[in-house]
Amino acid sequence: MAVDLLIWFVKASVVYGALLGTAALMSLAERKVSAWMQYRHGPNRVGPFGLLQPLADGVKFIFKEELVPEGANRWLFRLAPALAAMPAMLTVAVIPFGTSVEIAGRTVPLSITDLDIGILYVLALSGLAVYGAILGGWASNSKYSLLGGLRASAQMISYELSLMLAILAIVLVSGSLDLRAVIEGQRGFTDWNIWKQPLAFLLFTVATFAETNRHPFDFAECEPELVGGFHTEYSSMRFALFFLGEYCAMTVMAALNATLFFGGPSVPGLPDAPWWLGVGAFGAKTAFFLFLFLWVRWTLPRFRFDQLMKLGWQVLLPLALVNLTLTGAWVAWSGGH
Amino acid sequence: MVVVERKELTLWERLWLPEVARGLSITFRKLFQKRITRQYPEERLPTDEVTRGQPRLVVKDDGNIACVSCGLCEAACPAYAITIDGGETDRFIEREPVRFDIDMLRCILCGFCEEACPKDAIFMSDELELADYSRGALVYDMHKLKRPKAALQKRIDYVYRINDRWRKPSST
Fold it and tell me: Does any domain span residue A93?
Protein backbone atom coordinates (compact mmCIF):
# COMPACT_ATOMS: atom_id res chain seq x y z
CA MET A 1 0.00 0.00 0.00
CA ALA A 2 2.75 2.43 0.97
CA VAL A 3 4.69 1.51 -2.15
CA ASP A 4 1.62 2.09 -4.28
CA LEU A 5 1.19 5.52 -2.75
CA LEU A 6 4.85 6.31 -3.31
CA ILE A 7 4.71 5.24 -6.95
CA TRP A 8 1.57 7.26 -7.43
CA PHE A 9 3.15 10.29 -5.78
CA VAL A 10 6.28 10.04 -7.92
CA LYS A 11 4.24 9.72 -11.10
CA ALA A 12 2.12 12.74 -10.18
CA SER A 13 5.19 14.84 -9.36
CA VAL A 14 6.91 13.91 -12.59
CA VAL A 15 3.85 14.61 -14.73
CA TYR A 16 3.07 17.95 -13.09
CA GLY A 17 6.72 18.94 -13.19
CA ALA A 18 6.80 18.12 -16.88
CA LEU A 19 3.53 19.94 -17.53
CA LEU A 20 4.53 23.13 -15.73
CA GLY A 21 8.03 22.93 -17.16
CA THR A 22 6.59 22.61 -20.65
CA ALA A 23 4.27 25.55 -20.01
CA ALA A 24 7.23 27.64 -18.88
CA LEU A 25 9.31 26.58 -21.86
CA MET A 26 6.41 27.34 -24.17
CA SER A 27 6.36 30.95 -23.01
CA LEU A 28 9.97 31.11 -24.15
CA ALA A 29 9.42 29.05 -27.29
CA GLU A 30 6.57 31.33 -28.31
CA ARG A 31 8.87 34.31 -28.36
CA LYS A 32 11.76 32.40 -29.88
CA VAL A 33 9.71 30.98 -32.76
CA SER A 34 8.03 34.29 -33.45
CA ALA A 35 11.44 35.94 -33.47
CA TRP A 36 12.99 33.38 -35.79
CA MET A 37 10.15 33.70 -38.24
CA GLN A 38 10.77 37.43 -38.33
CA TYR A 39 14.58 37.22 -38.67
CA ARG A 40 15.08 38.19 -35.03
CA HIS A 41 16.93 36.42 -32.23
CA GLY A 42 14.30 36.39 -29.50
CA PRO A 43 15.18 36.47 -25.83
CA ASN A 44 18.79 35.38 -25.51
CA ARG A 45 20.20 37.34 -22.59
CA VAL A 46 18.96 35.38 -19.58
CA GLY A 47 20.93 32.17 -19.41
CA PRO A 48 22.11 30.16 -22.42
CA PHE A 49 19.74 30.75 -25.38
CA GLY A 50 17.51 32.68 -22.98
CA LEU A 51 16.51 29.45 -21.23
CA LEU A 52 16.14 31.17 -17.88
CA GLN A 53 13.78 33.78 -19.30
CA PRO A 54 10.63 32.07 -17.94
CA LEU A 55 12.21 32.14 -14.48
CA ALA A 56 12.98 35.84 -14.82
CA ASP A 57 9.41 36.45 -16.01
CA GLY A 58 8.04 34.53 -13.06
CA VAL A 59 10.07 36.57 -10.59
CA LYS A 60 8.95 39.75 -12.32
CA PHE A 61 5.29 38.75 -12.17
CA ILE A 62 5.50 37.94 -8.47
CA PHE A 63 6.91 41.37 -7.67
CA LYS A 64 4.37 43.29 -9.74
CA GLU A 65 1.61 45.20 -8.05
CA GLU A 66 -1.72 43.47 -8.00
CA LEU A 67 -4.66 45.62 -8.98
CA VAL A 68 -8.33 44.89 -8.48
CA PRO A 69 -10.44 47.32 -10.50
CA GLU A 70 -13.07 49.43 -8.78
CA GLY A 71 -16.48 47.78 -8.87
CA ALA A 72 -15.04 44.38 -9.61
CA ASN A 73 -16.47 41.32 -7.98
CA ARG A 74 -13.43 40.76 -5.81
CA TRP A 75 -14.06 37.15 -4.99
CA LEU A 76 -14.74 35.98 -8.53
CA PHE A 77 -11.98 38.21 -9.82
CA ARG A 78 -9.50 36.34 -7.68
CA LEU A 79 -11.03 32.95 -8.41
CA ALA A 80 -11.06 33.24 -12.21
CA PRO A 81 -7.33 32.78 -12.93
CA ALA A 82 -7.27 29.64 -10.82
CA LEU A 83 -10.33 28.35 -12.67
CA ALA A 84 -8.61 29.06 -15.95
CA ALA A 85 -5.47 27.16 -15.00
CA MET A 86 -7.07 24.24 -13.17
CA PRO A 87 -8.91 22.20 -15.87
CA ALA A 88 -5.82 21.68 -17.99
CA MET A 89 -3.82 20.63 -14.96
CA LEU A 90 -6.50 18.13 -13.95
CA THR A 91 -6.93 16.75 -17.45
CA VAL A 92 -3.32 15.70 -17.69
CA ALA A 93 -3.93 13.07 -14.99
CA VAL A 94 -5.53 10.58 -17.38
CA ILE A 95 -3.23 10.99 -20.37
CA PRO A 96 -1.00 7.95 -20.75
CA PHE A 97 2.51 9.17 -21.47
CA GLY A 98 4.01 5.70 -21.82
CA THR A 99 3.14 2.04 -21.81
CA SER A 100 4.15 0.52 -18.47
CA VAL A 101 7.23 -0.09 -16.35
CA GLU A 102 8.24 -3.06 -14.18
CA ILE A 103 9.34 -1.70 -10.81
CA ALA A 104 9.97 -4.01 -7.84
CA GLY A 105 7.85 -6.76 -9.36
CA ARG A 106 4.92 -4.50 -10.09
CA THR A 107 3.65 -3.36 -13.44
CA VAL A 108 3.28 0.39 -13.24
CA PRO A 109 1.21 1.93 -16.04
CA LEU A 110 2.70 5.22 -17.13
CA SER A 111 -0.05 7.70 -16.45
CA ILE A 112 -1.14 9.26 -13.18
CA THR A 113 -4.31 7.26 -13.26
CA ASP A 114 -6.06 5.07 -15.80
CA LEU A 115 -9.73 5.95 -15.73
CA ASP A 116 -11.91 3.70 -17.82
CA ILE A 117 -13.92 6.80 -18.75
CA GLY A 118 -10.77 8.84 -19.41
CA ILE A 119 -12.07 10.49 -22.56
CA LEU A 120 -15.30 11.52 -20.87
CA TYR A 121 -13.27 12.99 -18.00
CA VAL A 122 -11.13 14.97 -20.45
CA LEU A 123 -14.15 16.34 -22.29
CA ALA A 124 -15.96 17.25 -19.07
CA LEU A 125 -12.97 19.12 -17.68
CA SER A 126 -12.07 20.90 -20.88
CA GLY A 127 -15.66 22.16 -20.90
CA LEU A 128 -14.96 23.81 -17.53
CA ALA A 129 -12.06 25.78 -18.98
CA VAL A 130 -14.44 28.42 -20.30
CA TYR A 131 -15.37 29.47 -16.76
CA GLY A 132 -11.97 31.00 -16.16
CA ALA A 133 -12.30 33.26 -19.16
CA ILE A 134 -15.94 34.20 -18.70
CA LEU A 135 -15.74 34.78 -14.95
CA GLY A 136 -12.51 36.75 -15.36
CA GLY A 137 -14.19 38.87 -17.99
CA TRP A 138 -17.37 39.40 -16.03
CA ALA A 139 -15.82 40.01 -12.61
CA SER A 140 -13.47 42.67 -13.95
CA ASN A 141 -16.29 45.21 -14.39
CA SER A 142 -14.77 46.37 -17.65
CA LYS A 143 -16.42 46.42 -21.05
CA TYR A 144 -13.42 44.96 -22.85
CA SER A 145 -13.09 42.13 -20.39
CA LEU A 146 -16.78 41.37 -20.59
CA LEU A 147 -16.75 41.25 -24.39
CA GLY A 148 -13.67 39.04 -24.28
CA GLY A 149 -15.34 36.70 -21.83
CA LEU A 150 -18.52 36.55 -23.90
CA ARG A 151 -16.60 35.77 -27.03
CA ALA A 152 -14.58 33.13 -25.23
CA SER A 153 -17.72 31.38 -24.07
CA ALA A 154 -19.49 31.58 -27.44
CA GLN A 155 -16.44 30.32 -29.24
CA MET A 156 -15.54 27.55 -26.83
CA ILE A 157 -19.06 26.19 -26.73
CA SER A 158 -19.43 26.12 -30.51
CA TYR A 159 -16.06 24.49 -31.07
CA GLU A 160 -16.39 22.06 -28.21
CA LEU A 161 -19.19 20.36 -30.15
CA SER A 162 -16.95 19.64 -33.11
CA LEU A 163 -14.15 18.65 -30.78
CA MET A 164 -16.32 16.14 -28.96
CA LEU A 165 -17.82 14.74 -32.15
CA ALA A 166 -14.34 14.27 -33.57
CA ILE A 167 -13.27 12.44 -30.43
CA LEU A 168 -16.44 10.35 -30.48
CA ALA A 169 -15.44 9.01 -33.89
CA ILE A 170 -12.21 7.81 -32.28
CA VAL A 171 -14.19 6.26 -29.46
CA LEU A 172 -16.24 4.36 -32.03
CA VAL A 173 -13.13 3.17 -33.82
CA SER A 174 -11.31 2.00 -30.71
CA GLY A 175 -14.46 0.88 -28.92
CA SER A 176 -13.51 2.29 -25.54
CA LEU A 177 -13.56 5.49 -23.50
CA ASP A 178 -10.30 4.48 -21.88
CA LEU A 179 -7.30 6.35 -23.25
CA ARG A 180 -5.13 3.35 -22.40
CA ALA A 181 -7.28 1.20 -24.69
CA VAL A 182 -7.08 3.86 -27.38
CA ILE A 183 -3.28 3.69 -27.44
CA GLU A 184 -3.32 -0.10 -27.15
CA GLY A 185 -5.34 -0.15 -30.36
CA GLN A 186 -2.67 1.81 -32.23
CA ARG A 187 0.51 -0.07 -31.39
CA GLY A 188 1.75 -0.43 -34.94
CA PHE A 189 2.44 2.48 -37.25
CA THR A 190 -0.35 1.43 -39.61
CA ASP A 191 -2.86 1.18 -36.76
CA TRP A 192 -2.60 4.85 -35.94
CA ASN A 193 -5.99 6.53 -35.90
CA ILE A 194 -4.76 9.29 -38.21
CA TRP A 195 -4.98 6.77 -41.09
CA LYS A 196 -8.46 5.64 -40.08
CA GLN A 197 -9.83 9.05 -39.18
CA PRO A 198 -8.02 11.78 -41.12
CA LEU A 199 -11.09 14.03 -41.12
CA ALA A 200 -11.54 13.65 -37.38
CA PHE A 201 -7.89 14.60 -36.95
CA LEU A 202 -8.35 17.80 -38.97
CA LEU A 203 -11.53 18.70 -37.08
CA PHE A 204 -9.92 17.97 -33.75
CA THR A 205 -6.82 20.01 -34.55
CA VAL A 206 -8.82 23.01 -35.74
CA ALA A 207 -11.10 22.77 -32.73
CA THR A 208 -8.19 22.62 -30.30
CA PHE A 209 -7.01 25.97 -31.59
CA ALA A 210 -10.39 27.47 -30.74
CA GLU A 211 -10.62 25.54 -27.50
CA THR A 212 -7.31 26.87 -26.20
CA ASN A 213 -8.01 30.40 -27.47
CA ARG A 214 -5.06 30.36 -29.79
CA HIS A 215 -4.54 32.10 -33.08
CA PRO A 216 -6.28 32.28 -35.48
CA PHE A 217 -9.21 31.98 -33.06
CA ASP A 218 -8.01 34.02 -30.11
CA PHE A 219 -11.05 36.28 -29.95
CA ALA A 220 -11.12 36.20 -26.20
CA GLU A 221 -7.94 38.30 -26.21
CA CYS A 222 -8.03 40.00 -29.59
CA GLU A 223 -5.65 42.86 -28.81
CA PRO A 224 -6.67 45.34 -31.52
CA GLU A 225 -10.34 45.28 -30.53
CA LEU A 226 -10.48 44.38 -26.87
CA VAL A 227 -7.17 45.63 -25.42
CA GLY A 228 -6.42 42.28 -23.77
CA GLY A 229 -9.83 40.65 -23.72
CA PHE A 230 -10.83 38.85 -20.56
CA HIS A 231 -7.49 39.47 -18.87
CA THR A 232 -7.34 43.21 -19.57
CA GLU A 233 -7.71 44.13 -15.90
CA TYR A 234 -5.40 41.49 -14.53
CA SER A 235 -1.88 42.10 -13.38
CA SER A 236 0.87 40.37 -11.49
CA MET A 237 0.74 36.64 -10.79
CA ARG A 238 -2.98 36.39 -11.62
CA PHE A 239 -2.21 37.53 -15.15
CA ALA A 240 0.57 34.97 -15.28
CA LEU A 241 -1.86 32.29 -14.13
CA PHE A 242 -4.06 32.92 -17.15
CA PHE A 243 -1.06 32.39 -19.35
CA LEU A 244 0.05 29.36 -17.42
CA GLY A 245 -3.45 27.96 -17.92
CA GLU A 246 -3.34 28.68 -21.62
CA TYR A 247 0.02 27.00 -22.07
CA CYS A 248 -1.02 24.03 -19.93
CA ALA A 249 -4.18 23.69 -22.00
CA MET A 250 -2.10 23.78 -25.17
CA THR A 251 0.21 21.10 -23.79
CA VAL A 252 -2.70 18.89 -22.81
CA MET A 253 -4.41 19.35 -26.16
CA ALA A 254 -1.18 18.54 -27.99
CA ALA A 255 -0.74 15.46 -25.82
CA LEU A 256 -4.34 14.44 -26.53
CA ASN A 257 -3.78 14.87 -30.23
CA ALA A 258 -0.72 12.64 -30.02
CA THR A 259 -2.64 10.09 -27.95
CA LEU A 260 -5.84 9.96 -29.97
CA PHE A 261 -4.43 10.08 -33.48
CA PHE A 262 -0.74 9.22 -33.40
CA GLY A 263 -0.62 6.27 -31.06
CA GLY A 264 0.70 8.13 -28.02
CA PRO A 265 3.84 6.22 -27.01
CA SER A 266 3.84 4.03 -30.11
CA VAL A 267 7.15 4.13 -31.96
CA PRO A 268 6.89 3.66 -35.75
CA GLY A 269 8.46 0.39 -36.81
CA LEU A 270 9.02 -0.83 -33.24
CA PRO A 271 5.75 -2.22 -31.83
CA ASP A 272 7.59 -3.63 -28.80
CA ALA A 273 9.76 -0.61 -28.05
CA PRO A 274 11.06 -0.24 -24.46
CA TRP A 275 9.06 2.08 -22.24
CA TRP A 276 11.58 4.94 -22.30
CA LEU A 277 11.52 5.03 -26.08
CA GLY A 278 7.73 5.17 -25.90
CA VAL A 279 7.85 8.11 -23.50
CA GLY A 280 10.30 9.79 -25.85
CA ALA A 281 8.02 9.21 -28.83
CA PHE A 282 5.09 10.60 -26.89
CA GLY A 283 7.15 13.65 -25.95
CA ALA A 284 8.25 14.18 -29.55
CA LYS A 285 4.70 13.97 -30.88
CA THR A 286 3.44 16.36 -28.21
CA ALA A 287 6.30 18.73 -28.96
CA PHE A 288 5.39 18.73 -32.63
CA PHE A 289 1.80 19.72 -31.91
CA LEU A 290 2.95 22.37 -29.47
CA PHE A 291 5.16 23.73 -32.22
CA LEU A 292 2.15 23.64 -34.54
CA PHE A 293 0.32 25.99 -32.17
CA LEU A 294 3.17 28.50 -32.41
CA TRP A 295 3.71 27.91 -36.08
CA VAL A 296 0.08 28.64 -36.94
CA ARG A 297 -0.02 31.63 -34.61
CA TRP A 298 2.81 33.35 -36.42
CA THR A 299 1.49 32.45 -39.87
CA LEU A 300 -2.23 33.21 -39.97
CA PRO A 301 -4.07 36.45 -39.34
CA ARG A 302 -6.95 36.43 -36.88
CA PHE A 303 -10.40 35.54 -38.20
CA ARG A 304 -13.36 37.86 -37.98
CA PHE A 305 -15.80 36.81 -35.31
CA ASP A 306 -18.58 36.04 -37.80
CA GLN A 307 -16.13 33.96 -39.84
CA LEU A 308 -15.22 32.07 -36.72
CA MET A 309 -18.86 31.30 -35.96
CA LYS A 310 -19.56 30.41 -39.57
CA LEU A 311 -16.61 28.04 -39.69
CA GLY A 312 -17.61 26.45 -36.42
CA TRP A 313 -21.31 25.91 -37.07
CA GLN A 314 -21.53 25.66 -40.84
CA VAL A 315 -18.37 23.80 -41.71
CA LEU A 316 -16.82 21.97 -38.77
CA LEU A 317 -20.02 20.79 -37.10
CA PRO A 318 -21.64 19.28 -40.26
CA LEU A 319 -18.34 17.68 -41.21
CA ALA A 320 -18.00 16.23 -37.72
CA LEU A 321 -21.54 14.89 -37.83
CA VAL A 322 -21.03 13.32 -41.26
CA ASN A 323 -17.76 11.83 -40.09
CA LEU A 324 -19.37 10.41 -36.98
CA THR A 325 -22.30 8.97 -38.92
CA LEU A 326 -20.08 7.35 -41.52
CA THR A 327 -17.77 5.96 -38.86
CA GLY A 328 -20.73 4.58 -36.94
CA ALA A 329 -22.14 3.00 -40.09
CA TRP A 330 -18.77 1.50 -40.94
CA VAL A 331 -18.28 0.12 -37.44
CA ALA A 332 -21.79 -1.39 -37.47
CA TRP A 333 -21.29 -2.83 -40.95
CA SER A 334 -17.88 -4.33 -40.25
CA GLY A 335 -19.27 -5.80 -37.02
CA GLY A 336 -17.00 -4.23 -34.47
CA HIS A 337 -13.78 -2.31 -34.50
CA MET B 1 -13.89 57.00 -57.15
CA VAL B 2 -11.89 53.85 -57.46
CA VAL B 3 -13.73 50.62 -57.95
CA VAL B 4 -11.77 47.86 -56.32
CA GLU B 5 -12.48 44.56 -57.93
CA ARG B 6 -12.41 41.78 -55.45
CA LYS B 7 -10.98 38.59 -56.76
CA GLU B 8 -13.30 35.63 -56.41
CA LEU B 9 -11.61 32.89 -54.46
CA THR B 10 -11.20 29.67 -56.34
CA LEU B 11 -12.56 26.46 -54.85
CA TRP B 12 -9.03 25.44 -53.92
CA GLU B 13 -8.55 28.67 -51.99
CA ARG B 14 -11.94 28.41 -50.32
CA LEU B 15 -11.00 24.99 -49.02
CA TRP B 16 -8.78 27.07 -46.75
CA LEU B 17 -6.55 24.31 -45.45
CA PRO B 18 -4.32 23.97 -48.56
CA GLU B 19 -3.67 27.70 -48.43
CA VAL B 20 -2.93 27.44 -44.72
CA ALA B 21 -0.42 24.71 -45.50
CA ARG B 22 1.18 26.98 -48.08
CA GLY B 23 1.46 29.77 -45.54
CA LEU B 24 2.91 27.40 -42.98
CA SER B 25 5.56 26.24 -45.44
CA ILE B 26 6.58 29.84 -46.03
CA THR B 27 6.95 30.64 -42.35
CA PHE B 28 8.78 27.37 -41.76
CA ARG B 29 11.38 28.29 -44.35
CA LYS B 30 11.79 31.67 -42.70
CA LEU B 31 12.63 29.95 -39.43
CA PHE B 32 16.10 29.19 -40.73
CA GLN B 33 16.85 32.51 -42.34
CA LYS B 34 19.80 34.53 -41.21
CA ARG B 35 18.89 36.74 -38.27
CA ILE B 36 19.32 40.37 -39.12
CA THR B 37 19.02 41.86 -35.64
CA ARG B 38 22.23 43.45 -34.45
CA GLN B 39 23.21 42.29 -30.96
CA TYR B 40 23.94 45.80 -29.82
CA PRO B 41 26.44 45.88 -26.98
CA GLU B 42 28.52 43.17 -28.64
CA GLU B 43 27.97 44.08 -32.28
CA ARG B 44 28.25 47.79 -32.76
CA LEU B 45 27.54 49.90 -35.78
CA PRO B 46 30.78 50.83 -37.51
CA THR B 47 31.74 54.40 -36.63
CA ASP B 48 33.15 56.73 -39.17
CA GLU B 49 35.64 59.56 -38.88
CA VAL B 50 32.71 61.85 -39.68
CA THR B 51 30.88 60.62 -36.56
CA ARG B 52 30.61 63.43 -34.03
CA GLY B 53 30.52 61.65 -30.70
CA GLN B 54 31.27 63.16 -27.33
CA PRO B 55 34.14 65.66 -27.17
CA ARG B 56 37.37 64.42 -25.60
CA LEU B 57 40.66 66.05 -24.66
CA VAL B 58 43.71 64.86 -26.56
CA VAL B 59 46.64 63.68 -24.45
CA LYS B 60 49.78 64.43 -26.38
CA ASP B 61 52.68 62.04 -26.63
CA ASP B 62 54.46 63.82 -23.74
CA GLY B 63 51.55 63.01 -21.43
CA ASN B 64 50.04 66.48 -21.14
CA ILE B 65 46.88 67.83 -22.66
CA ALA B 66 47.28 70.58 -25.23
CA CYS B 67 44.68 72.83 -23.61
CA VAL B 68 45.84 76.28 -22.50
CA SER B 69 42.46 77.17 -20.95
CA CYS B 70 41.87 80.01 -23.35
CA GLY B 71 38.11 79.58 -22.93
CA LEU B 72 37.24 79.71 -26.62
CA CYS B 73 35.43 76.41 -26.56
CA GLU B 74 33.58 77.53 -23.44
CA ALA B 75 32.47 80.61 -25.33
CA ALA B 76 31.64 78.72 -28.50
CA CYS B 77 29.55 76.11 -26.72
CA PRO B 78 25.89 76.83 -27.57
CA ALA B 79 24.68 74.66 -24.71
CA TYR B 80 26.96 76.10 -22.01
CA ALA B 81 28.17 72.62 -21.32
CA ILE B 82 31.85 73.47 -20.83
CA THR B 83 33.31 74.99 -17.65
CA ILE B 84 37.01 75.87 -17.50
CA ASP B 85 39.07 77.27 -14.64
CA GLY B 86 42.53 78.28 -15.76
CA GLY B 87 45.72 77.99 -13.74
CA GLU B 88 49.46 78.49 -14.16
CA THR B 89 52.03 75.91 -15.07
CA ASP B 90 55.81 75.74 -15.29
CA ARG B 91 55.54 74.30 -18.77
CA PHE B 92 56.34 76.48 -21.77
CA ILE B 93 52.66 77.17 -22.46
CA GLU B 94 52.38 78.81 -18.98
CA ARG B 95 48.63 78.22 -18.62
CA GLU B 96 46.71 75.03 -18.24
CA PRO B 97 43.24 74.22 -16.97
CA VAL B 98 42.89 73.23 -13.32
CA ARG B 99 39.34 72.33 -14.02
CA PHE B 100 37.82 71.30 -17.35
CA ASP B 101 34.30 69.99 -17.02
CA ILE B 102 31.86 69.05 -19.77
CA ASP B 103 28.30 68.39 -18.71
CA MET B 104 27.52 65.53 -21.06
CA LEU B 105 23.81 65.92 -20.38
CA ARG B 106 23.97 69.42 -21.87
CA CYS B 107 26.40 68.67 -24.66
CA ILE B 108 24.60 68.55 -28.01
CA LEU B 109 27.55 67.03 -29.89
CA CYS B 110 27.65 70.00 -32.29
CA GLY B 111 31.40 70.05 -32.57
CA PHE B 112 31.78 73.82 -32.12
CA CYS B 113 34.39 73.30 -29.37
CA GLU B 114 36.46 71.28 -31.77
CA GLU B 115 36.24 74.02 -34.38
CA ALA B 116 36.94 76.79 -31.89
CA CYS B 117 40.02 75.23 -30.32
CA PRO B 118 43.20 77.01 -31.50
CA LYS B 119 45.47 74.40 -29.92
CA ASP B 120 43.91 71.22 -31.35
CA ALA B 121 43.25 70.12 -27.81
CA ILE B 122 39.64 68.96 -28.04
CA PHE B 123 38.17 66.59 -30.62
CA MET B 124 34.91 64.79 -31.16
CA SER B 125 35.48 61.12 -30.40
CA ASP B 126 33.38 58.23 -31.68
CA GLU B 127 32.11 57.50 -28.17
CA LEU B 128 28.35 57.85 -28.12
CA GLU B 129 27.09 55.93 -25.12
CA LEU B 130 25.99 57.87 -22.09
CA ALA B 131 24.46 56.17 -19.12
CA ASP B 132 24.92 56.41 -15.39
CA TYR B 133 22.95 56.37 -12.17
CA SER B 134 23.09 60.12 -11.40
CA ARG B 135 23.28 63.42 -13.20
CA GLY B 136 26.40 64.36 -11.29
CA ALA B 137 28.25 61.38 -12.65
CA LEU B 138 27.60 62.58 -16.16
CA VAL B 139 29.46 65.87 -15.64
CA TYR B 140 32.80 64.66 -16.93
CA ASP B 141 35.94 66.22 -15.45
CA MET B 142 39.32 66.54 -17.08
CA HIS B 143 40.39 63.13 -15.92
CA LYS B 144 37.41 61.42 -17.55
CA LEU B 145 37.80 63.42 -20.75
CA LYS B 146 41.41 62.57 -21.46
CA ARG B 147 42.09 60.23 -24.35
CA PRO B 148 45.45 59.26 -25.83
CA LYS B 149 46.15 60.83 -29.18
CA ALA B 150 46.17 57.47 -30.95
CA ALA B 151 42.52 56.87 -30.01
CA LEU B 152 41.45 60.08 -31.72
CA GLN B 153 43.92 60.02 -34.61
CA LYS B 154 41.33 59.21 -37.27
CA ARG B 155 39.20 62.20 -36.31
CA ILE B 156 42.25 64.49 -36.00
CA ASP B 157 43.38 63.58 -39.51
CA TYR B 158 39.87 64.10 -40.81
CA VAL B 159 39.52 67.55 -39.22
CA TYR B 160 42.92 68.60 -40.58
CA ARG B 161 41.92 67.40 -44.02
CA ILE B 162 38.66 69.28 -44.24
CA ASN B 163 40.15 72.40 -42.69
CA ASP B 164 42.84 72.34 -45.35
CA ARG B 165 40.21 73.00 -47.90
CA TRP B 166 40.28 76.65 -46.94
CA ARG B 167 43.37 76.85 -44.73
CA LYS B 168 46.75 76.96 -46.36
CA PRO B 169 49.32 74.73 -44.64
CA SER B 170 51.44 77.80 -43.89
CA SER B 171 48.77 79.41 -41.75
CA THR B 172 49.23 76.89 -38.96
Answer: yes
B31-64 residue pLDDT tens: 888 888 888 888 888 888 888 999 999 998 888 8
For B126-137, the pLDDT digits (tens) are 888 888 999 999
CA gap B31, A36 in Å, rounded: 5
**Is A26 a domain residue?**
no
Q: Considering its fold, how many domains does chain A have in total?
A: 1
Which candidate, B77, B83, B70, places its Cα nearest to that of B115? B77
pLDDT level of residue B122 (50, 70, 90 thresholds): very high
Q: Is A288 on the interface with B (CB under 8 A)?
A: no
Q: How far apart are CA A121 and CA A129, in angstroms?
A: 13
- Note the Cα B105 to chain centre separation in Å: 14
Indicate whether A242 belongs to any domain: yes
| Rounded-to-integer distance, Cα A141 and Cα B86, Å | 67
Domain span at residue B61? 55-165
- Number of other residues whose CB lies within 10 A of the CB of residue A50: 18
**ipTM higher than threshold 0.85:** no
- Asked whether A161 and A317 are in contact (CB, 8 A), the reply is yes
Q: In chain A, which residue's Cα lies nearest the Cα of B36?
A: A39
**β-strand pairing of A106-109 with B82-88:** unpaired
**Does A299 sit within 8 Å of B30, measured CB to CB?**
no
Residue of chain B nearest A298, judged by CA positions: B27
Choose among A36, A38, A295: nearest Cβ to B24: A295
Specify which residues B100 forms β-bridges with: B84
Domain membership flag for residue A119: yes
